[in-house]
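User: Structure please.
Assistant: Input sequence and predicted structure:
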Amino acid sequence: MKMRLLYAVLVLFVMIFNSCTSEALEETPIIEAVNNIALEQELLDIVNTHRVSLELIDLEFSDVAYKYANKHTDYMIAKGSISHDNFSSRASNIHSEAVVEMVAENVAKDYDTATEAFNGWYNSSSHKKTMEGDFTHTAVSVKQDERGNYYFTQLFYKK
């Protein structure tokens, strides 16, 4: 138990100091975009199929992660670029609602399909490590900006 607590504190410490917090949420006007639920479900299915092929558990959908993934996707659309800005705040908010051990996220932009987004993450060692990580829950947010560009946020956590 003591080792798990130390690990959780270490993960939180790394998340706080490695997160990009160059711009506060309050400084960016946010407009809520419409979710592409079909792409979200397809990407979640692809990630879980990949995990099962590695004999990892299916990730359970989380309403809490979905709420914060959606907020972050809207934030990225407002900025016009992908980022991990304010990640430590998202992780802390998720922890306060779901009491989790660790939180991680993958973000992407400009892929037209769920398969393309998955392949982009799969071909990036850090994103692949997150998809294959020791997590129990997830949610995917996929939204389009006014020019038709897709933005993706997938949050992961372990209870």
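Residues 2-18 form the longest helix (17 residues).
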